[in-house]
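User: what does the whole thing look like in 3D?
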Amino acid sequence: MAEWGEARKSSLLGKYTQRLSGPQKVTGQAKYTFDINRPGMLYGRILRSHIPRGTLTALDLSPAQQMPGVKAAIPLIEVGKEIRYEGQEIAAVAADTKDIAADAIRAIRFDYDPLDHVVDLGESMSESSPQIRDWENNQSDRQIDEKGDLQAGWTTADAVVEATYSTEVQVHTCLESHGHVAEWDGDQLTVWASTQAVFGTRRDFARHFELPEDKVRVITEHMGGGFGSKFGPGVEGQAAAKLAKETGQPVKLMLTRKGEQNTAGNRPSMVQHVKAGATKEGKLVAYEVSGYGTSGLGGGAGFTGPYVYQVPNYRTEKFNVAINAGSGRAFRAPRHPQGAFAMDSLMDELAEKIGMDSLEFRKLNDPNEIRHAEYDRGAEEIGWNRRQKVAGSAPGIQKRGIGVGSGQWGGGGGKGTKARVNINSDGTVEAVTGTQDLGTGIRTAIAIIVADELGLQPTDITVKIGDTLPGLPSGGSGGSQTTPSVAPVVKTAAMAAKESLINHLAEKVNVVADEVVIKEGSVTIGNNQLSWKEAASTLGMETISEEGSWDENLREGGAAGAQFAEVEVDTETGQVKLIKIVAVQDCGLIINRLATESQINGGVIGGIGYALLEDRIMDGQTGRSLNSNLIDYKVAGAQEIPEIRAIAHDTDRKVTGIGEPVTIPTAGAIANAVYNAIGVRVRSLPITPDKVLTALEEA
Amino acid sequence: MQGASCVEPIDWVEVWLSNRGDPAHLHLSKDGCRIHIRYLVQEVCPTSRLVIQGGQMAEDTTRSTDQPEDRQKDLHQVNKTGLSRRNFLKGLGTGAVAATVAPATLAEADSHSATTGAEITRATVKLSINQQVYQIEVEPRTTLLTVLRDGIDTGGQRIDLTGAKEVCDRGACGGCTILVDGRSVYSCMMLAIDAEGKEITTVEGLADDNELHPVQEAFIEHDALMCGFCTPGFVVASKAILDQNPNPTREEIQAELSGNICRCGTYPFIFEAVASAAKKMK
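Assistant: Here's the predicted 3D structure for the full assembly of 981 residues, as structure tokens:
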């Protein structure tokens, strides 16, 4: 079993390393799928439904097909089928230019018989709602989970809180929209894909076109954000490849911003009615929740709960509600931010009711020791003792408050990655594996691991990822699994390559392997010292090429996190201004501290949008989204960013993933800070000025 | 409502004319409306680069009169706003942009000329991009961003400057930021024909003989990028800020960069990078 050794002594592991892709990205040289221009390439575009529901009665592609510059038009739905949401694909075209493709889409004629739609969660559950999918009253089966003796729990409770919490539908809003460039050469398909899973995408393309997998190549050199929404070709990828096949020319088809916002996934909403009880000594004893949410027409709505804290007796009931809207997809820590916001708010409410400090109450119910340390560290950093002792008691119009939130994630990685490290006779080193870099920095992490093992610098390593061609598969980048899945295999590959070089050199000069030491860019053999290049040149016609293997001992799951927020609420305008956020995140063994801090910042900022700004707004009458653009759908911008203290809580354990856990606690911390400031609780995200003012008015 | 030639059911219309680089916002009231808009659209008009957003739906009168039976049914479905849902939906049925505006006059025009692109004229423009002159044939509607990314010069050479990104396609995100005569401009909001005679600099043109601009260096050093898709826009915008204001405070940096969006959440390190580049450039 391999070990990371004493990482703190490494000059690379856990230190600040600049991203290898930095120079390409700041000069515009980094080519994303969106930037791929192939010789003879056509531009694809999708005609989407503007109605939420209806039966397609006619579809005429001929006006588009007859336009000069249009090379192909294909249907994406059969006449007679039901259109089920705004943005559903009707047809696709390929044309010489982007503008002609847009003209062609407008020229296509279709007709339909409208059907009654529903886009509101509550309305969909009512008896008067149209039945829009195969669930009774548009509601999926209840998932019920029970533990302990709930009745006994209530009898021991000294304080009980009952509340309803809700969260909005959040849209991924990847800046590079979903899309592909597809190119056929005979029966060989090459696809540049904006994807989180090159191998999964290859498999899906192969299945769709009934090709052997080795006839499909998927390339993702750089990609502009996925956040859980980019795991397969989707209708758009299939359409791109089909158009390319039909025209015999490469086709680029990227979703428009509107298509992206309406159809490429979202974080489902949540409504939960919860009741919980605690003893006056501060122990949670009973928890009961009934909750639901909508992810559009699909499943996958839900929330974690009870969350983080131990409750001996509980009953939970959760289900999905269907509406006529684009379906949800995995979104950075699926189900957790919803659950955490509600649980963190609930914990605050209970603590107040039993007259206990909120942090003390949490510690009494949180079994995770790492998080206890994080609570202490974060409390000191934010100045927890400055918190309003009585919520809302500060004088003045602008009131400040402090709150805390918690999170927990798995992220331990898993088997399935193949990786290879090559040492060439000119001294160059290649690390090859089939993972992909979403922006998390795995490319640089791989270079750090290999360089650390071989005594080189990360910039000495050529990392080849994001391509299925070398045939070294790796899983999709989801669940914060990438680094803990890839790192062990890369590490063992580098170890094997190093061992091979040592054995080669030892054999060459006839010494035992122990006498060969590779360190800090040079190789010592007995009393002789060779530079790395000189040592590699002894390989002559040979190349060292070693595969790594999975090693359980190099990775670990279970990352705990805690965040603290300080806010200032204007009680006249309802505006919540963030003052500071402290994020203390268990990061296991850190490979690149710089990228880790970036991830923490990013998670917090995603959480800020979730807490205060983002909300997909559907219009009940038309069944259409009112904000499927970047003007009206508000993601956090430069002006919304407070001081953020990203603390990578270094536990020196083993490698883990943190992309997701860092976005979980933010909304709860902000919501609790708002309460601490104004003494009135807003139980619904996003906490917009109108909700704050309404809450103040009703108080 | 039947036979209405203008747009009675429309509550508000927002028009952006983007042929001057900066969008003009025109809010047209119901009474003041002189555009023939038959459908609620949120689309880019192909001939005039016009973005329209409508607050409510106009009725497709042509279709209603053509289909008397439908019309009869519709009468029973008129909802409380006085708007027939069926016609409302029907009106959207073609997927067509149904508004045309002569850029300066907002005169009425027939909707269908816009849908086919048949009357589009082309012109050859001379553009100076990163100190190199290109001759490119464009349509009046072609944006500068489209030329940079997808344009082919008259010699058949792809311009292929793909650093500037199309993200929102309506001047909301800054992903396509470039410099025009030294000022930062959203290239998705500027027509190519309006860029003639101006000096255009893209992110590809910032480095000097392979030596990175201090802003670019600072972005790398401070990890002011993750996925990197927004990075070219931020880099260019940051350079423009420092050209105007060599000593920005953090608040000024935040205010100046509020026209750029990053979804990965790199802002804190971007602010650090800009501050650090400012020091370096002294």
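In plain terms: Residues 231-244 of chain B form the longest helix (14 residues). Chain B touches chain A through 81 residues (CB under 8 Å).
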